[in-house]
Amino acid sequence: MTKFDKLFNELPDDIDCVLVTSDVNRRYFTGMKSSDGTVIAFRDKAYLIIDFRYIEKARAVVKTAEVIEQKKLYNQIQELIHKHSAENIAVESQTMTINQLNTLKKFIKDTEFIETDVLSNAINSLRMSKDLSEIECIKKAQEIAELAFDGILDYIKEGVTEREIAMELERIMMINGSEGVSFETIVLSGANTSMPHGVPSDKPVQKGEFILMDYGAVYNGYHSDMTRTICLGEPSAEMRKVYEIVLEAQKAAINQARAGMTGQELDFIARSIIEEAGYGEYFGHSLGHGVGLEIHEKPNASQSYRHILNENAVVTIEPGIYIAGKFGVRIEDFVILHKNGCENITKSAKNIISL
């Protein structure tokens, strides 16, 4: 069963046709990365309309849709609608702009446009549960990221800057097969670690400081995401105490994570431990988020996410404590959710490391 078959199984029976135009969803259905292109799919066949720049690659790579070279896009869409006798077409309401929709309506006649969230929600639902090929790509991305972690431990020394550490992490990932970085690499040290999404600076790392590294690799379009907080030299008693609280919270959440619970329930497991330790006010972000073709995608593990976590969803578990002006600690793994538990695909050590 193709992803298009699965999509139509998610949709109401009276939807004849779907139009996929967002880059990430087009890649999800066709397996091909491109900055342009249009997928139009019917219940019996799918098509990728794409311009001359990508046509050779598309014909070699895309197996789930017939590839058509783009000439006059709206005429081609209209012809396919007539060919398949489609009376309506569902569009990606959550990503398509009003201008794009109005242009389509101007050129595509005698067709009902379904502008509700029905298509976007169906695609989101599919993407939340990863298939085996997607999981393999995510695991490979994580392996690359962990090679970078192993390598960076030998690189870090007093006087090296946050920016230099970030660049070295990215270099190691690139030479080991990463297509790029999952997001802008975060490397912070000392008091800067209290900023959850701080930006690497030219500050040199110093003895007695935490160094927080949050980064990821990309393999075949799929992302990894991990955070480790290490210490250059010996941590203070307070630093060690906070680290152990975060680690306890993270381990508890991983031990209890499973498909079928809500994101709110998973978040509470870690948050309650941090709150009971007296640091609840210093944990100000969600426990985790989905990861796949995008670094942040559904489902979420947050206080407000009351939806069920899907089987085979890949979710980060990343509690943290951030004390402004002093230091912060975050430890992040990500897991594949199953009915009776989860598989942690992050293998790097997370006991406190003192270099």
Please give the count of helices.
10
**Could you tell me the mean pLDDT?**
96
Sketch the topology as an H/E string, one letter per element.
Answer: HEHEEHEHEHEHHHEEEEEHHEEEEEEE
**Major sheet attributes:** 6 strands, mixed
Query: Strand pairing plus helix content: what structural class?
Result: alpha+beta
State the distance separating the first and last CA atoms: 50 Å
Overall, the morphology is elongated
Name the CATH homologous superfamily of the largest domain. Creatinase/methionine aminopeptidase superfamily
CATH class of the largest domain reads Alpha Beta
Count of domain modules: 2
Low-confidence stretches: none
Assess the beta-strand content as a share of residues: 15-25%
CATH architecture of the largest domain: Alpha-Beta Complex
In total, the number of strands is: 18
Helical residue percent band: 25-40%
Using only C-alpha atoms, the radius of gyration works out to 23 Å
CATH third-level topology of the largest domain: Creatine Amidinohydrolase
**Strand order in the largest sheet:** 4-3-2-1-5-6
Briefly characterize the structure.
With 355 residues, the protein is α+β, with helices and mostly antiparallel strands. It is 37% helix and 22% strand.
Folded structure, characterized:
With 355 residues, the protein is an alpha+beta fold. The chain has 2 domains: 3-127, Creatine Amidinohydrolase, Chain A, domain 1, CATH 3.40.350; 132-344, Creatinase/methionine aminopeptidase superfamily (Creatine Amidinohydrolase). The protein is 37% helix and 22% strand. The chain has 10 helices and 18 strands. Strands 4-3-2-1-5-6 form a 6-stranded mixed sheet, with helices on both faces. The protein has a 3-stranded antiparallel sheet with strand order 7-8-11, with helices on one face. α3 links the parallel β3 (46-50) and β4. The radius of gyration is 23 Å and the shape is elongated.
